[in-house]
Specification:
Helix content is 32%, strand content 20%. It has 231 residues and is α/β, with parallel strands linked by helices. The chain binds the ligand O=C1O[C@H](COP(=O)(O)O)[C@@H](O)[C@H](O)[C@H]1O.
């Protein structure tokens, strides 16, 4: 089920989203002794990471991973892993356990197996998984009309990750598959700006997941998805 929360300012959105993340991570730690969160890359998460990194939590009991990454070196500005190190694994959150998806393989397709083994260290279901959405309707690195999209969307597959070559963006990627994304207790879809609201409305009003892969997350009844939107 999808619910949209709209905020008057991005500051209000970030404050509430971070407070909800902290609540869910604390709940996970109280119940299971550990908690996990999968985060997106791109630009939208930066202020969330900055605020989250300062929250008092038993961070040594928190596992952080990525929903996707670009197949670039971790020193490259396009690397989502670099983004997490720069903005989230700071301050209090320095103590968290981070498990990235990138490996030393030459391509994400060759790296899938090792990435999958790394990911097995992260407690699942994720307590929280945060998604973004591109103007083309991609989420994580599930890209419209991409060759490996069917693999990524296959709910009967036991693959945790798949390589992806987007047609609408540069760089090969590795991404969690849809069944892995939906193996979450809470999914938050973080959107900023009027144009993303229009894209979201289009996604909610149509069914073709090949055209807009984010629909596979919006139109499912396995896990509640909360959209956080502000101008
Ligand atoms: O390429 C990517 O883009 C999306 C959206 O990023 P945003 O900056 O427009 O929010 C992101 O969710 C994904 O993780 C990233 O790899």
């Amino acid at each position: 089920m999808f619910t949209l929360k709209e905020y008057g300012s991005s500051e209000q959105l970030i404050e509430e989203m971070v407070s909800n993340i902290v609540t869910e991570l604390n709940k996970g730690i109280a119940t299971r002794g550990v908690a996990s969160i999968a985060v997106s890359g791109g630009k939208s998460p930066i202020p969330v990471f900055q605020r989250l990194s300062k929250q008092p939590l038993p961070w040594n009991k928190v596992y952080i991973t990525l929903v996707d990454d670009r197949w670039v070196d971790d020193t490259d500005d396009a690397s989502n892993e670099k983004l997490v190190y720069t903005y989230l694994l700071q301050n209090e959150a320095k103590l968290a356990n981070f498990i990235g998806l990138k490996t030393s393989a030459a391509t994400p397709f060759e790296g899938e197996q090792v990435a999958q083994q790394k990911l097995a260290e992260v407690p699942m279901p994720f307590d929280v998984l945060i998604l973004g959405m591109g103007e083309d309707g991609h989420t994580a690195s599930l890209f419209p009309h991409a060759k490996h999209l069917a693999t990524g969307l296959d709910m009967y597959s036991d693959k945790l990750v798949t390589g992806m070559t987007p047609l609408t963006a540069p760089l090969d990627r590795i991404t969690l598959t849809l069944p892995t994304i939906l193996n979450s207790r809470n999914i938050y879809l973080h959107l900023t700006g009027a144009s993303k609201k229009t894209v979201l409305d289009n996604a909610l009003n149509g069914k073709d997941v090949t055209e807009m892969p984010v629909r596979a997350v919006l139109h499912q009844d396995k896990v509640n998805v909360i959209g956080y939107w502000s101008k």
